Amino acid sequence: MLEADRIADTLALDEPVGRVRMVSPGRAKALDAMGIRTVRDLVTHVPRRHLDLTNVQTAASCPLGQLCTVVGVVHKAQLKRPRPRLALVEITLVDATGTLMVTMFQQPWLMDKLEQGMRIAVSGKVEFNYGFKRMTNPFLEVLEPDQDAQGRVIAVHPATEKLSATMVRRLVGNALEACAGLLDPLPIALRTRYRLMSRMTALRCLHFAHNMDEVREAKRRLAYEEVLLLELALMTEGLKRTAGRRPCAHVVDGPALRALDAAVPFTLTAEQQKAREEILSRLAAPEAANHLLLGDVGTGKTVVAAYALAAAADTGGQAMLMAPTEVLARQHGKTLGPLLDAANVSWAVLTGSTPAAERDAIQAGLADGSLSVLVGTHALLEDDVAPKRLTLAVIDEQQRFGVDQRARLLDKGEAPDALYLTATPIPRSLALAVYGNLTLSYLKARPNRGAVRTTHLHRKADRGRAYDAAKEALKRGEQVYVVCPLIEEAPEKKDAKRSGGLQDDDAYAFDRVVIESDEDFAGADVSAATKQAAYLQSTVFADWDVALLHGRMKPAEKQEVMDRFARNESQVLVATTVIEVGVDVPNATVMIVEDADRFGLSQLHQLRGRVGRGALDAQVHLVAATKDAEALKRLSALERTDDGFELAEFDLSLRREGDILGNRQHGASALKLVNIVRDRNVIEAAHRDAEDLLARDPMLDQPEHRALAREMRLLFSSAADIQGG
């Protein structure tokens, strides 16, 4: 094929999907509703599963509880409407050995497609109900009279009522024809090193494989390409921050840092020492640091970060630490203040409620350089908060700030080092995929405080056991958290459940999970929370004072509620969220989480980190409203382990990373074929290869890299597409 033809086929990828044969205006509209607008979108429309028809079973031999394929004749097809807005087609399928009942939810159009005596193949999980073997919402294909279902691999693409999976597969084939000669963006050296298919071969095998080995090799090639492009995009975006600017090489052996080390009232753990050295080495380097410290709840991130603040002071620079809430910012001031005082480092806290006179003094000290460390909230982003020489920006719980907010803080210096902190336990493979432009340090072990924290899972009917444990703790003079999500379920989810919904083996089964971060409490029903607090005050905890905390309170109101709780003036705190508080109340030893099945595991793990923060043993009681065995199994992981990173790995094995990160990290959601747990070696390799490529060719403008650079720019056209650090 001529080079000009190959270029034309490559450019065809980004033409409107309407140029593909058989894509009429109506079909183009249906594809658009699925997010498919270009030829590229269509050829990368990943099948949700592949059916291996090399071993077709009979109705009699198909094993219960397993995925299998059965070929038979339609004996009868009936449309039933057992409830309003719920339509189902029940198909009686027969072969020489017996009968298989097939139920298809919300697909009434099948009645126009199926006729008695028609041969069909169905592939799905077999169950036994009401005296028959059954499949619910299997893949269904009508066979031609002489067509053999056996010996083929069928890609099952996500489809809609207006576009069947069969039609989507046909359109994908036509799209592949339209770009058959496209250029491969991967350098030949990388393809040879890992023995990867060409891009076009991989796309053909993804959609039209002859066997499952071809499917696996296609996914391996395309998954590597996905991660490499993402890593390159993250790294090149990170380089833009300091382009043309002079970074600061920090002093990491100065008097303030030594004084701080002497003032820390405990010996750092080996893990904390390693993280400190990694951070300081990044700060000492002549390049701008972009470092992420991932620390499980209670592992000492703040103390480790204090060394970075002292290094900034020793260098004659300034540091700003931004926290997502006022309560947390003041807590940082309370924790860091004595250490910074001992190190003779000037500091202050600035929030939205800081009095005007105090704010003016802080701004003046920051502007003339006499103030070395400023801790605060979004108030730090105001234009009149202008440091004389910002050399370090520390952003706590960085995932709770937008790209623009993080950039605004960093722009207050010429090229300040950036240190990000997060208590969200993110396994290394996911961290590399989401934060590929950052270097990483981990804190996984909590220093032994002598306290033991145990977690118990209860069904709704057994919640009395949780309340009994809470009352026993209150009688001992201890305190209790009761977390009530009370989030109204989205109407579309209610409708889907009412109508039976469509089943998908690849879909996330735990669809009640709606809380992955504090932002998900935005829909909390405050009136219901108020009623719940009043109910507990008048019944279960009538002998104690019950307070209420929710996200719609003003900062000053939140602070007052927490201060009263910290002083033990209220003994029970009913809260729609506790994570954002971030305040240590060592006397709080029991937490009850209502509707625990609505939380992500990482969120539950962070919640339970609010108890057991002193010398007293603590208990966490998870009350689950669901009876679903899989959901209960998932929650039981919290009983087995207190390791947040282990829980995150487990959650990732069940769910897509976009679910866990709330799809707020666009980079992760760009990975269509990558499984973060399974493909950790692919991610590590792609990360190394991206670093190597950019070290040799920072602009990717060498001839062998230009196609790769073009693909990266097309997929990630702006910083908003890849959040990173």
Features:
alpha/beta; 725 residues; 6-stranded parallel β-sheet; 21 strands; 39% helix
3D architecture notes:
A 7-stranded parallel sheet has the order 11-12-10-13-14-9-15, sandwiched between helices. The chain has a 6-stranded parallel sheet with strand order 16-21-20-17-19-18, with helices on both faces. α10 packs parallel to α11. The protein is globular and about 85 Å long. 39% of the residues lie in helices and 18% in strands. β13 (390-396), α14 and β14 form a beta-alpha-beta unit. The chain is built from 26 helices and 21 strands. The model is unreliable at 488-511 and 662-668 (pLDDT under 50). With 725 residues, it is α/β, with parallel strands linked by helices. The longest helix is centred in the first third of the chain and has 29 residues, at 212-240.
Please specify the SSE layout and strand pairing.
Blueprint: H1 3-12, H2 25-33, H3 39-43, E1 49-52, E2 67-83, E3 86-95, E4 98-105, H4 110-113, E5 119-129, E6 132-136, E7 139-142, E8 153-156, H5 165-178, H6 188-194, H7 199-207, H8 212-240, H9 255-263, H10 270-284, E9 290-295, H11 301-314, E10 318-322, H12 326-342, E11 347-350, H13 356-368, E12 373-376, E13 390-396, H14 403-410, E14 417-422, H15 428-434, E15 439-443, E16 453-459, H16 463-475, E17 479-483, H17 491-498, H18 526-538, E18 546-549, H19 555-566, E19 572-575, E20 588-593, H20 601-608, E21 618-624, H21 629-640, H22 644-654, H23 657-660, H24 666-669, H25 680-696, H26 706-715
Parallel strand pairs: 4-6, 9-14, 9-15, 10-12, 10-13, 11-12, 13-14, 16-21, 17-19, 17-20, 18-19, 20-21
Antiparallel strand pairs: 1-8, 2-3, 2-5, 3-4, 5-6, 5-7
Helix pairs in contact: 5-7, 7-8, 8-25, 8-26, 9-11, 10-11, 11-12, 15-25, 20-22
